[in-house]
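## retry 2 of 3
previous attempt timed out at serialization; input unchanged, resubmitting
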Amino acid sequence: MEQKRRIYKSFNNIAETCTRYPLAILLLLTIALINGIEIHSTINNYSNLLFTLVIGVFVSLVAQVSYEGFFVKSNHRWLLYGIAIILAIIYYIMLLPVDGIGTVVALRTTVAIFILLVAYIWIPTVKNLVTFNETFLALFKAFFQAVFYFGILYLGVMLIIAAINALILEVDSKVLIHSANIIFVVFAPVYLLSMIPAYDQGEDKDNDTRDRVAVSTSKLLDTLISYVIIPITAVFTLVLLIYVITNISGRFWTDNLMEPLLVTYSITVIVVYLLASNISNSFTVYFRKIFPKVLVPIVLFQTIASILKIGEAGFTHGRYYAILFGVFATIAGLIFSIVPVRKNGLIAPILIGLSVISILPPIDAFTVSKNNQTNRLKNVLQANDMIADDEIIPKADVSEEDRNTIINSVQYLDFMGYTNDIDWLSSYSKDRNFDMAFGFSQFDFGDKEYKSFYFSRENNPISITGYDIIIRSNLIYSEGNKELGSYVKDGIEYRLVVDVSEEAYEIILLNEAEEQLISLDLSEIINQVNASDMDRELTLEEATFTKDNDKASIKIVVENIYTSSYRGQVDGQHVEMIGDFLVGIK
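## retry succeeded, writing output
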């Protein structure tokens, strides 16, 4: 009887969720439907629509909690849903001129979703019906429960499909993708939403009980946070503090690895603080007292270091967000240090405001980084007389520092898809030929004593006159000895092999008696490649190597070759070559 009651209650919760979030559920079903169509379609042009629907889901969630927190009449609810739909349509219209979902659009959309998610957590706390710590905990628990339950469900579906495929009949591989689509796009989100209480409905006894469960920690979570996560965070903090203190006069300010590490640390501390705010024991009390005060100087140093690195590598959207998050984390640390725990929600509108600033021109992360990198590149080109009348003039004689600046700026602008929009970069953006546009290789920098080469030959026909057979093969030094091919002439079998040893790296022709008829030392080819100072296309003559004696002839026509050298000495341990091997018996 108890089991039936639980099953009924679960279905009732899901039914209530569908009633509570009708627009969000409808949009999730639409996303699943479009995903299903796309799985079977060869035309993948649904990205704009899918992004719009995802935005619509989160806007509808914010509309629902706004209705629950501030309105009573049902027509207000539908008015908010109408506004949500209009916002989603506006977003879709903004995407229409965009040719595909690029990096900038994807990042802006991700930040917009993050803003809506924070708003979804924060809005129920505005009227003090519940604290931000509790709404954050409710979503945190719901998310990981949904991931755990439906991860196991998907694993079970995979095993069932694999068993059917192995034992009964062949199953189309797309069935598994369809299963993932239904489980993770529909079932898991609906279950997650069913775990989020309507905080203003406490007069209902069942809802009140569910609310208390949702916003309170379990014994397992208490133990995990108090006795596992907090001690690990404490040890990690100690390591960071020791590093910062011992390197404050030098390495800390130039170590690029520290920036993402400190940002990750700050996020971890803030999340753990919010979770620990729902727990009352000695560990969590000391954590709440000490860690915000430790967080502030660490993120201040990280922010200053990020600002200083702008002069070295320019402004990028990643550095913009690192600095912006440093500002937020500093403010959050100060708030956590001086206000009561129940007022932690003050960080939410600050985070929303900073995030909105980061995506709205003209001071958003993308406009600022584009302008900075564009101006940085143009200034270096002008300083080296490499630009005139908005046309780039190739030049090989450029200092290594300026080369690195040009390379880094062009690579960033290219990655973000900005080069097509800059008129004076048209000579590069047409075919992305960096060497031709700027006069030097974008990979020709760093340790000049170590060089890597990749050559290909021009595509001309190969003469086989005077030879019996032509063999195409790929040689890799690390593979060791191997047979490239064999053939029979006048009843005698001949084999072409590669002999790799400490003394030699040779191509050898053997007869049936394993007698060596002729050999060609591959070091001749490698040394010729090493004599060049840059990657280029070899002529057919340069790519051809021959050897003759009174018994046989052998010719190698290199298709392409990769090798490296250090201080002029060929590194024989790193050789790869594809070529045509011609053999003739006299």
